TrEMBL record:
Residues 64-156 form the Methyltransferase domain. Residues 1-24 are annotated as: Disordered. One of its GO terms (molecular function) is methyltransferase activity. This is Methyltransferase domain-containing protein. The lineage of its organism: Bacteria, Bacillati, Actinomycetota, Actinomycetes, Streptosporangiales. InterPro entries: Methyltransf_25 (IPR041698), SAM-dependent_MTases_sf (IPR029063). Pfam families: Methyltransf_25. Keywords: Methyltransferase, Transferase. Signal peptide: none annotated. SUPFAM superfamilies: S-adenosyl-L-methionine-dependent methyltransferases. It comes from Actinomadura montaniterrae. GO terms for biological process: methylation. It comes from the Bacteria. Residues 7-22 have a biased composition (Basic and acidic residues).
Length: 286
C-alpha cells in the first residue's frame, strides 16, 4: 500500500489492531485509545455531553449507563443531574482519569472496565443508555446496538452523540482509513452519525427516534497547530502517523491541511473548523 513503510508485517499487525480496537474493544495489543492523550482531546467537547443529557431529559434517580465513557464527560454530566450513573470503558487509563474527575467534583459515579460488545449488566438494568463519540467506534455495530437495547428497560431511552460523515472528524476518519486500510463503507464509525443507520439499528425497537444535526467547532491558531494537536492526542491519528512512512505522513499532512484551510479560515489567521455530529434519542417500545 502506498505510504506504508517497508516493515509490512509489523505495520499490518498494528493496523489490524487499530481497526479492531478503534472503539474501546481491544482485540489486539495496540490500544488505539490508549495512544495519544484522549483526555486532552475530550476536553475540547465537554459541552456535548451536557447538551446530550439535556436532550435526553436525564432525571434525578434514573439509572444511566455511559458506554465507551472515555474520561467520563457524559457520565459526569448525568451525575450532575442526580442520576445513578455507571460509566464503562475498555481503557484503564481513561477510567482512572474519569474517577479522578468525579472525585474532584464530589460526584458518585461507578466507572467500570468493560466491553461495549458484552456489557456486564442484566437485561433492562438501566433507564437510559448514553454515549458521546464512543460506541460509534466499536467495530461490530449491530452487536453494540443490541447491547444498548438489551440493558435498557422497555420504555427507556438511548441517547447518542456521533460524529457524522461530513465535517472535520468525518473527513479525518476517512483519511485515516484511506492511508491505513481502516474501516470504511458499512463498517465506518460515522455511519452512527446518520439518521438512516440509527433507524436501521434502533428503529425497529423504538416507539420514537428523534435525530438532529449539530455542529461542534474546533478552534486552533493554525492548520499546523490543529494537525499537531490531533496527531499528538487523538488515538486514531497518532497510530496512523506511527505506522506510515515519511512519504505517507507527508501526504496525510497535506490532505489534512487542505481540508482545514478550505473549511476553517477565521480572522487573524486562526482556524475555526466545524464538525457535524448527530444527536439522537430513541425511546424504546414498552
Amino acid at each position: 500500500m502506498p505510504g506504508m513503510s517497508d516493515d509490512q508485517g509489523r505495520h499490518r499487525g498494528e493496523i489490524g489492531t487499530m481497526r479492531d480496537d478503534i472503539g474501546g474493544v481491544d482485540t489486539g495489543a495496540g490500544g488505539t485509545w490508549a495512544s495519544g492523550d484522549y483526555a486532552r482531546v475530550g476536553n475540547r467537547w465537554l459541552l456535548v455531553g451536557e447538551l446530550l443529557c439535556e436532550t435526553a431529559g436525564i432525571r434525578p434517580g434514573e439509572r444511566v449507563i455511559d458506554v465507551a465513557t472515555g474520561t467520563g464527560n457524559t457520565a459526569l454530566a448525568a451525575a450532575r443531574r442526580f442520576a445513578d450513573v455507571t460509566g464503562v470503558d475498555y481503557v484503564p487509563a481513561l477510567l482512572e482519569h474519569a474517577r479522578a474527575r468525579a472525585a474532584a467534583e464530589g460526584l458518585d459515579v461507578r466507572f467500570e472496565h468493560g466491553d461495549a460488545l458484552e456489557l456486564a449488566h442484566p437485561d433492562g438494568a438501566f433507564d437510559v443508555a448514553v454515549s458521546t463519540f464512543g460506541v460509534q467506534y466499536v467495530p461490530d455495530q449491530e452487536r453494540a446496538a443490541a447491547e444498548l437495547l438489551r440493558v435498557v428497560r422497555p420504555g427507556g431511552r438511548i441517547a447518542l452523540a456521533s460524529w457524522a460523515p461530513d465535517g472535520y472528524l468525518g473527513e479525518l476518519l476517512r483519511l485515516v482509513g484511506r492511508y491505513t486500510a481502516g474501516a470504511s463503507g458499512d463498517a465506518a464509525p460515522t455511519r452512527w452519525g446518520t439518521a438512516k443507520h440509527l433507524e436501521r439499528l434502533l428503529g425497529p425497537h423504538a416507539s420514537s427516534l428523534e435525530c438532529a444535526e449539530r455542529q461542534w467547532r474546533f478552534r486552533f491558531r493554525s492548520p499546523a497547530d490543529m494537525i499537531g494537536y490531533f496527531r499528538a492526542y487523538f488515538g486514531p491519528l497518532t497510530v496512523a502517523f506511527d505506522v506510515l512512512d515519511d512519504a505517507g505522513r507527508e501526504a496525510l499532512t497535506a490532505d489534512l491541511t487542505r481540508h482545514i484551510e478550505a473549511a476553517g479560515a477565521a480572522p487573524g489567521g486562526t482556524v475555526e473548523v466545524p464538525s457535524t455530529y448527530l444527536e439522537a434519542v430513541a425511546v424504546l417500545a414498552s
